[in-house]
Amino acid sequence: MDTFPQFLLHNAKTRPESAALREKSRGIWQTLTWRALADEVRALAAGLSAAGVQRGDHVGLLGENRPRLFAAMAAVQWLGGVVVPLFADTTAAEIAGPIQSAKMGVVFAENQEQVDKLLAAMPLCPTIRHIIYDDDIGMRHYRQSYVQAYDALLAQGRDGMAQVAGKLDAELARGSSKDPAALFFTSGTTGPARGVVHAHGALIDRARVAATIDGLTEEDTSVAYLPPAWIAQHMMAYALPMVTGSCVCCPESSETMLNDMREMGPTVFLAPPRVLEALLTQVTIRINNTGGFKRSLYDHYMAVAQRVGPRTLAGESVDLSDSLAYSLGHVLIYGPLRDVLGMSRLRVAYAAGEATGPDLLLFYRAIGINLKQLYGSTETGLFVTAQSNGRVKAGAVGAVAPGVELAFGPDREVLVRSPGLFLGYHGDAEGTHRATNADGWFHTGDAGWLDEDGQLHIVDRVQDVGALSDGTLFAPKMLENKLKFSHYINEAVVFGNGRDRVCVFVDIDADAVGNWADKEGLSYTGFADLATLDEVYGLIGEVIASVNAALAEDPELAHAQVHRFLLLQKRLEPDDGELTRIRKVRRDVVSRRFASLVQALYDGSPVGHVDAEVRYVDGSVGTISSDIRIRDAKTFAAQTRQKAA
Q1: Does 59 have pLDDT greater than 60?
Q2: How does the average pLDDT of the chain come out, rounded?
Q3: Looking at residue 575, which CATH number applies to its domain?
């Protein structure tokens, strides 16, 4: 079994009636077995073959997670094609670049919205021959000959199966672990997005490693709700289920996600830190709204959880009183809380995409959720390190995963050599050569170090790590994570490299701050108005003061306390280019776009002025012009640690 379609047929033979995919549609869960999935994929491959898809062709996939998206992936790979998942929330202008780069002839689109984007991009994408849509709502009046329903293509494949059966068998047998399987476009956090080509063997190898480390089997259930274009979601919702024969569930929508999670009861869960932060914010808002005895009970048992939970999860011994208190907390608080989050059956949860703050990791582990930090990139197939049970350390991303080698270059850059490495950047041999040296080491661009237990610690991107003018380490991501643990802060962007002090932009969490403002009896008309209130500045000032107090206790970071801050009057958005499609901050874009505000933070001005371009929901572009107040933060004297006698 060298390719994913070969794994598909293996699963169809060994567990034909087991669930492969579940989808909630119109409030009802629909199940597709491995046998049914294999039959559908074979027919779809026949239809694609008739449409001219050949070995080496790139086929686009545009939409949210749906069973037919996974079927399309397997059908394309059956023929030796390369799947190219695209971000569903991209604009027509953004989508043209990847289509042009990969010279896609066929694109699968989820619904009318995605078809319209492709039609708008057609003048720039002459290679497109076929657009295959899934959801037919609103599609009855489309008359373009190259726009076809998924059901029609599937029917054509079934009708013509006899004529191409031999070819399908030959292509399946011809598949090799070295064949390109998928092309992922990077998030573009630090520069233009690049196409990363992965072979079947690389993705399968990393999926096998993940299954081995955490004992994942066909009995597991995962949930597919993140962008399919993100390699971490692809690994968890496609590669891993193919290798283990487990089931993947697709929620009905983002709005019903929590309810659907409770119904599907996943045992494996993947989330970027932003999702974990958002879930924690929802919990905190609900607890804050209860007040009185319930709030006191929650605070008491969460203190017990933070003291006892991680040790219990790690299998360490705890004294009887702590064990009893934690057991009672499980009945009263932790169990119901996990149930509300849809995590009552979880065996393992993974945080990936960027660094997870130690406080965030501790919260989830404290309430009994086996949350682990993954480290990897699109180029490395995700699993570079892994945190095995009993060896989860806050602040670290785990020990080296099986098959992986680590080294460190100048500036402590992490270098990786692994069976999961990419084949190269699509159409960019020079870029591939720069990223991977002659000995096969990939330059990650991340600065890190190994501790005495062999666990890797990631500091930040090499290009972002610096120092204040007095030599104090400046690692922006570490400071931002400390600030973002507050449920009142959605995003933070800190500045300070080469300067005499640290300053920060704060993007407030509208739900949490709005809920607080309502309880305080404050009136406001919208997000921008909320972010101008003196009381909100005071609230965020308290959060920053708390972080500064903690920094003051660390001799290495005491001088990295935040001195000045402002509250942005617009959210940082992917459509405005300030965030990537997986919601990572584009630090260089924010710095350029709000350069006047950065200058005001450092020249002592009480107010900064900004003119910023924004993109509205309807796609139109406008400019907002505003004066933004700047406030000083409370700082603390560095505390010296007494040496033990």
Answers
A1: yes
A2: 92
A3: 3.30.300.30
